[in-house]
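= Tokenised fold =
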Amino acid sequence: MYEAHARMSLAVSAALAAMSVTVPVAAQQQQQLERVEITGSSLRRVDAETSLPVTVIRIEDLVRQGVTTAEQAVARIASNQSLQGVSQAIGGTTGGQSTADLRGLGGNGNKTLVLLNGRRVANHAFDSGSVDLNSIPLAAIDRIEILRDGASAIYGTDAIGGVINFILRRDYQGVQVSYERQSPQKAGGDIDRATVLAGFGSLAKNGFNVYGALDYRKQTVVEAAQRGFADSGILPGTSIASGTSGSSFPGDLSGFEPSLPNCAPPSSIPNEARTACRYDFTRDIDIVPKNDQLMVLLRGAMALPGDHTLSAEYLRAQNSVTTRVAPAPVSHFLPAGTSTIPAGAPAPINFPGLGLGYIANWRQVPAGKRTSESDTTTERLLAEMTGSLAGFDYKAAIGQSKNKVNEGTRDGYTNNSLIAAGVRNGTINPFGPQSAAGLAAINAAKVNGDTSIGEGRVDFLDFRLNRDLFSLPAGVVAAAFGAEYRKEKYSYVATDITAQLPSLGVDPDSDVSGDRDVTAAFVEMNFPIIKSLDMTVAARFDRYSDFGNTFNPKVGVRYQPIKQILLRGSYNTGFRAPTLYEIYEPASLTFTADNYNDPVLCPNGTPVGGASAGVVCGQQVLQRLGGPVGTGRPASALKPEESKTHTIGIVIEPIDSITLGIDYWRISLENQIDGLAEQAIFGNFSKYSSRFFRCSQVTAAVRATIDACLNFPNFDPIAFIDTPNENLGKLRTNGVDISLNWRIGRTAFGNWGFALDGTYVDKYEYQRETGGEYVQNAGVYADASPVFRWQHVASVNWNAGNWALQFANRYKSGYKDQDPSRSVSNYSIYDLAATWTGMRNLTVGLGVKNVLDKDPPLSVQATTFQRGYDPRFTDPLGRTFVMRASYKFF
């Protein structure tokens, strides 16, 4: 619960209503009156409930639910609509990153500020836009505070959608060892987690405290073939082409399919017309990657004479993610007369510069699944001084945080030039089983090693002052003042081996780096107008060395006319500076998420004469990414995102045991930074025709790295579409947060309670470009994702003696699918957890997650590599049994 009021006034009851839905029933203990700092404000207060909507979640409540990562914890926040978790590393270059995204404002969470103990952690180096939740040491966390309001006036950039602050334990003594095992009923996905928490000394009694936390977690892989709802891209009511690839095995020869009419099931199957073979690549992928995490946190504090405290802290978090996708689709020239040319092949074609022959479009099944590994290391070292000086409470810190990501190939990737040579001389057979020599050539061509290395670093210095200034008839005017300096650095290196792997889409000459200085000053003041009404005003000025200055104010009002009712509201402006990655991102080619027909060479799914269906129909197409500097534009081509946020709410306590909170919020955002959605480009070819670059429009050097361009000039396929980082249009969204807490209390059958935390999105619309029409997204899959109308987490809690039980529900409303003629049903999961504390110092927990073993709802989305469902919002593990034990030695 909040560390605040001793009396059960509305201020504390309202705080309870805004808490996690897992609030313990017996958590109503008296506490000493104390000033505390709540996330979203720099002022230290006695009242817990301010003009800002803040939710508090206790870690021990999440542990009871079987939550083992910060990603899982954030998924239980009703206002969160994250699009990126560990599973999105499958088929993507995310580095295994997990993000938070309050209000679903997009950009992989770069509009939600994630803090550790009130300060920043270095953003993930592969996008430098958001903190990797895998760097948060859950074993050392005491609670999570979620500010469901903009906070740029307090924290600066990124805090448009809100702030998630992971608060560390303050003063730990003893040694506690914990182990947890989670075993799905179906194969795959087992989780083992072990933690050690040890500390000694009391800051109050001994003048010092030192503690450390060690947290190790591993999860085994889940293959698509192990889940019936995810084992095929061919879904009910859809065409075969929509969920498969035209690059199959056995391959085709310039459009001639030697394995027709049956192809080579189950992976290679004929299309409906039996004119081409399609590859069901979904069968080959993982849907949950193998994941290993190790986190260490050390923290020490020492009381100094004169009411001062010196503390130091070191964090190191390592996250390793191994992913597998289907063998690579490739195209190679095959000279006429080569021994592997299948019987019945048509007459060879003359390819300028290559000679008489064919183009073999095939999938490198003999090389095996493409296996990648991402290793991320996050570090933070800081020293902090707190205390009182000349009538002010002060807090100052100096530190450094770093994030480094190594991504590389581990199997299934081959040197394209060696494979091409083997195909040309007949050693490698694209159309059937390999000889011993063919297998040896493929294995010899495999390339394993690091391909991309990203590193981000932040050096920071901050100082804050806080005190009561003077008294008014209604109370004391309090103020906080602060200043901050950050030096941000970013670098990206493409290793030499990327030149051998054109299918990665990484330019070996794309190394970039950048840096900038950020200075800021802010002030926050609270004015009591009358006894029941106070107003908080704040303002922050930021100066960026690379794009200029920004000023952001905030006003909040809190009105409590009677004990049972509290009214609150706020208005603020916000901003998000372009990240160093968005500015300096190197130009690179990567495949689109969805499959598309070439609007010129395969209109309506039928190839025009001379074009190969395996190249131009139902294929992933390359897209060119890059920041302004990486694509030859000035850094100033990107402007910062700017926002306005309004909130107004009411907290009602009709009786002492029931608290209801309702908060309306509205956000408007302009100058969104992103690439134009691929779905928009292919959805309106006439409007975006300039975004299409065909093989005839690129240099011979570029054509040589793109398999589809081997077919030029016999026909002119798409080389890539252009989707650089740019300022798009506006975004507007509004909705309501609802929190309910019913503290039933003690009965003849134990203590009972009920809690609910929900968010309803009334409107969510955005423009794809400045001045464009608005695209509706609330309850609709638009471009790359849906926005849920309603999400909630609810629980019934019971405890008696040494036992505690919790029955919880996680719910997401249905929506129109990516195919608007279809709908995705509601997703509702029930969890049951029991805890026993009948032996001194020992805690044992048992539970079942997804008690009813409900599969994710069917979705035909094709944005992720996983098909048949949407892995970004659902859990594919199914019914999972949880066992947990914790022992504290002293």
The two ends are 25 Å apart (CA to CA). Confidence is low (pLDDT under 50) at residues 1-34. Residues 436-445 form the longest helix (10 residues). DSSP finds ten helices and 46 strands in the chain.
